[in-house]
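Recap from last week: sequence in, structure out.
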Amino acid sequence: MSNNLTKREIVLEIYKKTGFPQKQVVDTVQLTLDIIQKALAAGRNVELRNFGVLEVQVRKSRIGRNPNKPEAEVVIPQRAVVKFKSGKILKQQLKKIDLATLSAPSAAEPSEDI
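Predicted structure tokens:
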């Protein structure tokens, strides 16, 4: 079982706390994600106070290597990427995480892609 939070889990959590119809919650969550995605695609940063900021940054063009053919250089073109900077409250909460519990299970779990 994955330790990742899914959109479905977000919908169920909001549904349990509000009692709003699940269809309405699904539509609202999806609309929120669509607005964030559209803003990022337009080059705008998304600031979610006390949570963090999604910033559009430009990665410079660089030379890389194909691990299967290390002798061949590959040009990796300039591109836009999204970086996340956590907000003040999230940073405080992250300091309280037991790091041993984060690193131990994920290394021991087998990959589900096989």
